[in-house]
Every structure is written in structure tokens, then in C-alpha cells.
Amino acid sequence: MEQLMIELNPQTTQPVVQVKNLAKAYGSNVVLRDVSLSVAEGSVTAMIGPSGAGKSTVLRCMNLLEQPDSGEIVIDGHCINAGKKTSPKSLAALRRSAGMVFQHFNLFPHMTVLRNVSLPQERVLGCSREQANEKSMELLKRMGLADKADQYPSRCSGGQQQRIAIARALALGPRVMLFDEPTSALDPEVGVEVLEVMKELASTGMTMVVVTHEMAFAENVADELVVMADGGIIEKGHPGQILKDPQHERTRRFLRAVLER
Amino acid sequence: MNNLVDVAIEYGPTLLGGLKVSLTLTILSLALGLPIGLLFSFGVTAKNKAFRYISVFFVEVGRGAPALVLLQLMYYGLPNANLTLSSMASACLALTWTTAAYSAELIRGGMQSVPSGEIEGSHALGMSYRDCLRFVVIPQGLRIALPSLMGFAVLLFQATSLAYSVAVPELMSQAYSIGSSTFQYLPVFIVAGLLYAAISIPATWLSVGAERLLSRHL
Amino acid sequence: MEMLKAIAIGLPLTVLVTILALMIGTVVALPIVAGLRSRNRLIWLMSRGLVDLLRGIPPVVWLFMLYYGISIGAVRLSALQAGVLGLGVVAAAYLAEIFRGAISAVPKGQWEASSALGFHRATVWTRIVGPQTARAAIPAYTTFAIGLLKDSSIASTIGVSEIVFMSSQYARQSGSGILVFFVAAGIYILLSVPLGLLSRHLDVKMRKAVAR
Ligand SMILES: Nc1ncnc2c1ncn2[C@@H]1O[C@H](COP(=O)(O)OP(=O)(O)OP(=O)(O)O)[C@@H](O)[C@H]1O
Ligand SMILES: [Mg+2]
Fold it and tell me: Do A88 and B118 touch (CB under 8 A)?
């Protein structure tokens, strides 16, 4: 079989996220085959690829929302091996180091915006209510949402809800933020608000992995571009380079389809 | 018509006394049955076998058997096991069973319809399984189940009318004894029926209103 | 064994009461649904009031009214007649609500598309809305039928000798109440199993016919 992986230059700093030989199948449907990936501290990795390529699955395996069949995941020194049983403690540690933002926000509709952001801090980090609220307000301000604190999520626009979700994840002080198509459920105009926030986050040195169809974001903000197809990584490297001169035929086909729309 | 008014005036106080007993029975059964129902809603899918079997038994029998059978079981049956309860206590026990069984299913349905994305959200945030239940699944599940639980409460209130068969002095049994001593059956039952309706109909509206309100908010 | 036989004597009447009441309920529900969908305020209000009243008063009260309270000349209704009639009209109210809900669950676009295609009203009902309504109503309808099977036990209170009536009688004679009533409960549970299976079977069949 053709070796699909292209080796990277050795990283200078210790990577925050390392995924080694990840594989996953749903029954007989092989969704991921031998995916390896490492994300350097402070870098932004964009992940693109056709629908069904397995992008979401990679991301969801990273914080064990999906149990991989084999492979290893290291995030900020917390190591999870698919073969071995994970203790609830190391699972919690891993999830604390990785913040996740979903396509459909997944806010808790029965809590106010402030409670949405504060509750995880209280329950996961053990903060007091005051501490948590203070931190939440600070983050909501940063997201431009301070006036929404006492509203319920359903009273907020999609873009606002997604920024609340980002604040909720950031509040736990993650080492890396995982975004799964954070703007796909939004009107383009509203999506911009979210992309702005993400850009700002990147500029502060947050390590990010972003599954996206926003080519402009991938080109301008990301340091590294990963192209996935059929359960594997077919190409990765500098975004500008790949977009200008894709090496793989499958990448070319995908980019043509996306860009010529 | 005159007849009806006469009966209402003459026997109103007795019938209202019966209504009070009906309401007491309803409230007691709800107060005891709902917490047990919440417990059973976890029990029917629990890993612990004993807990699961007990829950499934009580839920299936409680839903599958007519309330009348449970009432008679408690009142005429338990004395065989050397346990004789007052009519009120046995009626309360029977209707608590019914309540626990139905509410278990309604609550479980509510919890199952909590969107899986929210549960994933709480996992991704590193919240524990217990916290996810406590802060996300149970409050929302109960909330989703609330209108149907209210609808059930109305049916339960109506079911208390069957407790007359085990000699609980509730509205129906008062009406029957007035009827059989005066032979004014029709007017007495009409007045009793209107008393039931005066509680059930507004309560039903309330549950429909709750449904609209909650579906708007979510 | 003797016990089972004594209780099982009531089985035919339980089934009979259930089926007759369901038939009456289904037939009477149809005009009520029409009333509930009527644009005429007065008709709507009357239908609404009828449904609320029928559902707002416990079935046992209706049965007592019919059995003890109604006499046409010197003729009174028999226990079976009163039981079937009472349960039937109460069922009509519940079924009317079920049908109304199922009809309104058919997307508005279906009506619009039918009008756009120039279908007759009758065609719309028989070919478009009817089948989709039936599909939507079946789960609730069978759930209700199972409920009615259990509610048929209320007829025992006016002396219809169905399962619960026979059970009480046997319990009184033999003095073994606990077992008798558990057996009675078991019979009801067993009876509702085939209804549940039938519902699932119909549901699967309809799902094939009316894919969603
Ligand atoms: N829970 C599941 N059960 C079975 N198959 C699944 C499940 N989740 C995903 N899959 C399959 O895994 C494959 C990869 O899915 P994944 O969601 O990772 O793709 P994706 O690259 O994120 O696509 P998209 O751009 O549409 O989000 C798909 O073929 C999908 O059908
Ligand atoms: Mg995806």
C-alpha cells in the first residue's frame, strides 16, 4: 500500500498534542487508518478535507469523546493509550487540557450564559462560585458578550452562542483548543464574529486545531495545514504552499471543488 | 335542573369533604411516587442486576395492571400476608405504585430526549458522569417530562375515584352513599362529576400551557 | 389452576368491553374531530367543551351515571350496555384528540402541494393526508387501546363480570387475595403484549408505505 504520510521537519519545541497511529472503525466501516499528527506549542493547525474524511473523528478521539481502536494520544504530557484501559482520572486530566468547540455549540439551554461558563469551572476545577463568575465575566467581556451574561442561550444569535461556547472552554484554562467546524452552522456574516475571536485567540499564542471549510482562515491564520481524505492524512505542511501547489491528486480535486464554488 | 341545585346545596359540604380526601390522596401519591419514579427511571437500565430487576418488576406491573387491581391487591390481598392497612393507606400505596411506574417511564423519556450534543459538551469539558447527570441530564429531563407528568397527575386525580372500591371516603364514595340513600343518583353523580371536572379541566389546561411555555424556551 | 379458571371466565367480557368501547370511541371520535377542526366558532367551542367534559370526569362517574342514573321509562341500561357506552364515549374524546394531533402533524406543505396539483378534497383526504395521519396516529392509538383494556376493569364496579370482577369474587371466596390479584395483573400484562406487537408491526408496515 502506498505510504500516505509525509514526514514533517522535526519540531523544535516539545509538541503539545501528539497523536500516534490512531485507528478507528465503526463495525466494518474503517473511518481512520493510522493517523499521526503533532501540534507544536502556540501553533494553529487547520484541518480540511471532504465530508466523511474522518476530520471530526480525529478531533473527537483526541479528547476521547470517541474511543479509538488503537493508537496513542498525548496532550500536554497526559498520555492515553487505546489498548489500555483509561482511568477516569487521566481521562479528566486529558479533557481538562483540551478545550472543545462544537459545530452546534452544545450549550446547556437551561442555564444562563454565565452559569454555562461558570459551572464547569466549579465542578471540574473546584473553583468557588465567585472566582468562577469573575473569570467568566472577564472572558465574556473579551468575547464582547458581557451584556448577555444573564440571558439564556436561546436568546442569543448563533454567533454569540458559539463565542459563549469558546468562553466556556477557555475558562478551564486548556493547553489546546479543538474546533470542529465552528462556523459551519452560522450565516457567513455571523461566522465572521467567531473567526475574529479565533484569530485573536491565535494571536495570544493559544495552541489550536481547527477543522474548517473556511479556506481564508486556513490560509491566513493557520501555521500548518492538514488535508484528510478517506480516513487518512494525505498531505500536510505550510498552508500557502499546499493551497498554491498541492502535491496529491485528491487534494487538488478537493481544492478545486471548494474554491471554484 | 332544580333538582340538581337542591342536591348541590344539600349535599355540597359532604361532597366537598370527599373532594378533599381525593385531593389528599392525589398529593400523597405524587409526593411518594415521583421520587421513587425518578429512582426507577435509572433502575430499569441500571447495571446492578437486583436494582434493575426490582425496578423493571415494579414499573411493568405498575403500568400493566389496572389501578383497580392494584387497589384491591393492597386492600384485600395484603391481609393474606398478615399486613392489614387502613383503606386510605392501602389506596395510597397502590396509587404510589402507579405513579412511580408511570413517572419512571415519563422521566426516562425526558432524559433520553436531552440532546446528545449537550451530554458530549459536558464530557468534553471534563465534567464527571455524575455531574453530567446532576446538572445537565436530570434537570432538563425533568423539565421535558414536566408537561406529561402534569397530564399524568390529572389522570391520577381521576383514578382516586376508584379508591371508593376499597372504602376510602373520597368524592365518589360520598356520592354513591348519598345516591343509594336518597335514590337521587343522577343529580348526585352529575354534581360529583362537575366537581371532578372543575379540578381536572383547568389542570389539563395548565399542563398544555406548560408544554407550550417550555417548548418555546428550549 | 382452579383460580386461573375462575379468573379466566372473565376474560371474554374484558375483551368484549374493550373492543366494543374502542369501536364506539373510534366512530364517535370522527365527528368530534371535524368539530375540533371547524372554523365555525360555535361548533368548535361545543366540540372543545364536549371533549374537555368527557375527559374531565372520571370514567367511573360516567358509568355510574349511565347505570344508576338513567332510566328510559321503566327500562334501565344493563351493566354491560352502560359499561360499553360509558367507556366508549370517554374513549371518543381521547381518540378525537389523538386524531386531531395526528392530522395537524401532517406538514402544511402537503396540503399546499395537493391544492397546487388540483386534487379534490376527497382525494387529499383518502390519498394524501389520510395515510399520513394514520401513520402518525397508530402509536398513540394502540397505547390508548392498551389503556382502554385496563380501563375496561372499571366496568366491574357496576357488576360486569369481567376479569377484575371475577378476581374479587374469587378472592372473597377463597381468601387468597394476594395471588389472585397478581394473577389478574399478569393476565392484563399478557393481554397487552400482543397489542404492543401489533402496534409495532403496523408501524413498520406503515413506515414502509409512508416513508419519512
Ligand atoms: N457514530 C458513528 N457511527 C458510525 N459511523 C460513523 C459515526 N460517526 C462517524 N461515522 C462515519 O465515519 C466517517 C467519518 O466521519 P467524520 O464525521 O469524522 O467525517 P468528517 O470528515 O468530519 O466529515 P464532515 O465534513 O461531514 O463533518 C463517516 O463515513 C461517517 O459516516
Ligand atoms: Mg465533521
Answer: no
- Hey, are the CB atoms on B161 and C188 less than 8 Å from each other? no
Give B37 to chain A, closest Cα distance, Å: 22
Average pLDDT of span A59-68 = 91
C-alpha cell at C35: 368539530
Element (H, E) at A84: none
Chains that touch B (3 or more CB pairs under 8 A): A, C
Structure ipTM: 0.89
Smallest CA separation from ligand 1 atom 3, residue? A26
- Record the pTM: 0.82
C149-167 burial: b if 16+ Cβ within 10 Å, else e: bbbbbbbbbbebbbbbbbb
The whole-number average pLDDT for the span A8-37 is 84
Tell me: pLDDT of A28 over 80: yes
Compute the average pLDDT of residues B192-211: 92
Q: CB B14: neighbour CB atoms within 10 A?
A: 16
Tell me: the pLDDT tens digits for A157-216? 999 999 999 999 999 999 999 999 999 989 988 899 999 999 999 999 999 999 999 999
**Is residue A98 a contact partner of residue A174, using CB atoms and an 8 Å limit?**
yes
Residue C113 C-beta-side C-alpha neighbours within 13 Å? 8
Grid coordinates representing B122?
459536558
Buried b (16+ CB within 10 A) or exposed e, A73-83: bbbbebebebe
The phi, psi pair for A42, rounded to 5°, reads: 75, 5
For residues A61, A62, A65, A67, the Cα torsion angle rounded to the nearest 10 degrees is: 40
Going along chain B from its start, the domains and CATH numbers come out as: 2-214 (1.10.3720.10)
Whole-angstrom distance, CA of residue A259 vs CA of residue B57: 61
Residue C96 pLDDT > 90, yes or no? yes
Let me know: does B58 contact B100? Beta carbons within 8 Å.
yes
Helix, strand, coil shares, percent, chain B, to 5: 90, 0, 10
DSSP letter, residue A109: T
CA distances to B91, C74, C185 from B96, rounded to whole Å, are: 8, 43, 16
Interface of A with B in 45-74 (CB under 8 A): 63, 65
Cross-chain Cβ contact C65/B69 below 8 Å: no
Cα–Cα–Cα angle for C121, C124, C130, rounded to 5 degrees = 125
- Contact between residue C10 and residue C83 where contact means Cβ atoms under 8 Å apart: no
- What does the alpha-carbon distance between residue A16 and residue B208 come to, in Å, rounded to a whole number? 53
Question: Does B104 score more than 70 pLDDT?
Answer: yes
Q: For an interface test with B, which of C45, C48, C60, C195 has the most B Cβ atoms less than 10 Å from its Cβ?
A: C60
Q: Residue B106 contacts by C-beta under 8 Å, 6 or more apart in sequence? A: B37, B145, B148, B149, B152
Which of the listed residues A30, A56, A213, A226 should we mutate to test ligand 1's pocket, taking the one with most ligand atoms within 8 A of CB?
A: A56
Strands (E), chain A: 15-26, 29-40, 44-48, 70-75, 78-81, 98-101, 176-180, 207-211, 224-229, 232-237
pLDDT in tens, C18-36: 999 999 999 999 999 999 9
Domains, chain C, in order of start with CATH, read 2-209 (1.10.3720.10)
Residue C6: CB partners within 8 Å, gap ≥ 6? Answer: C166, C169, C170
- pLDDT number for residue C208: 67
3-state secondary structure of C105: coil
Measured CA to CA, the distance from residue B30 to residue B50 in angstroms comes to 25
